[in-house]
Amino acid sequence: MNRIPWDKILTFTPLDIGKIILTALIIVVVNKVQLVNDRLSALLIALPFTSLLAMIWMHQAKQSSERLANHAEGTFWFVLPTLPMFLIFPWMLRNHWGFWPALLANCLITIALFWLTVVVLRKFGIDLMPK
């Protein structure tokens, strides 16, 4: 993997600030919806708003079709190892785990599943984390 250009990543333009505000607004609205309807908020958060916005912004920044395709495909593969968390976490909470221990355990499980996904997919010629 090439050296990460932190100077480019940590430099914010007015457009970047707008992107941050819009993305944060989506999260806050979903959180507010949760106060009155937890199922509707779950549906809204399951929609890939941030992925769609990211792809729109990549397109506006004149990213190549190949980079957009790689982003969409990578998003698909990286969503899969997060899915067990949405079953394990509620099970833990219902079985008297505290919030923070359950959250920590699920973060560790998800990290392990991410790396397992990367290793397994490499065997099939899909390299999500190029060396």
UniProtKB/TrEMBL annotation:
Keywords in alphabetical order: Membrane, Transmembrane, Transmembrane helix
Top-level taxon: Bacteria
Transmembrane domains' residue ranges: 12-34, 40-58, 74-93, 99-121
Protein name: DUF3147 family protein
Protein species of origin: Luteolibacter yonseiensis
Organism ancestry: Bacteria, Pseudomonadati, Verrucomicrobiota, Verrucomicrobiia, Verrucomicrobiales
